[in-house]
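Following up on my earlier thread - several people asked me to post the actual chain instead of describing it. Fair enough. Here it is, all 290 residues.
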Amino acid sequence: MADIDVSIVVPVAEDPEGLRTTVNAVLAQTYDAFELLVVIDDESSECEELAESIAAREDRIYYYIEDEHGTAAAARNIGIREAAGDYLLFVDANVDFGPRWLSTLVDTIGAETDIVGCAVTVYSSHRDTVFGRLDQQTGFPTRRTIEQLKFAPSCCLLVARAVVEDIGEFDPRLNQSEDLEFGNRAYAGGYSFAYFDERSAYHPSRSSFTALTRKYRRRAAGTSTLCERYPDRYGPDGDHLRPEERIVPPLSGFKRTCRNWEDLSSADRVTLYAAFVVVRLTARLQRLAR
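Reply from S.P.:
Thanks for posting it. Predicted structure:
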């Protein structure tokens, strides 16, 4: 198979160590028909200094600053405009993968490949906590989001350039759920989704109550903004998008989000579900208090 040019776009905000992790993983790949575009979506001088130093050493690495919207969506859009590849691979800073990950992903690309959602394993990067285990169980259920919600998370997402040229870029006004809106737009345009799990990418878990609550608070805020921007498509509150994230999520919805529900002991099931309810309730109350 002839080499396929891939443009890897990495948006980053205030996470120089995460950026270093992802850049090192990219440079260790056995597949080398790629360019790497780092887009800094804030005024983090540390991220900018790191990106500048790496770009000075590697002629396939470029960096840009997004200072208009301050969102990951806007940062990805800059990458789209500057990219030269036939395929765009969006990877969040702090995602890691083995050296043959990209070559295996490229081998799955065929003439009909439009969008590929990549499997992401959430791992514990610090001490093991109930909240870390909860994030490992529920984080990035890519197969389910493709099948049920018609989108793939943008933390590790391959898109043919032709798709973006047809349906447009990410909505830069959205600071969360921009991947859901983009994926739904692609699906409505007749484009197909594939799921790649031959090799997994890796994302560190949010191991503290505060970090996990912040994640769900931001996600709920993103859903709210999505509904405000697109009321005809998503309705007034968006609860139907992720029913497991209602104020008191039903057990049936929680079970569907868990990666290994059947393998969990009864005690673990009760503990994780209780933690999930507490995190969701706290996130909702914090939003109402703002």
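Strands lie at 6-12, 34-40, 61-65, 87-91, 115-123, 156-160, 193-204. That should answer part of your original question.
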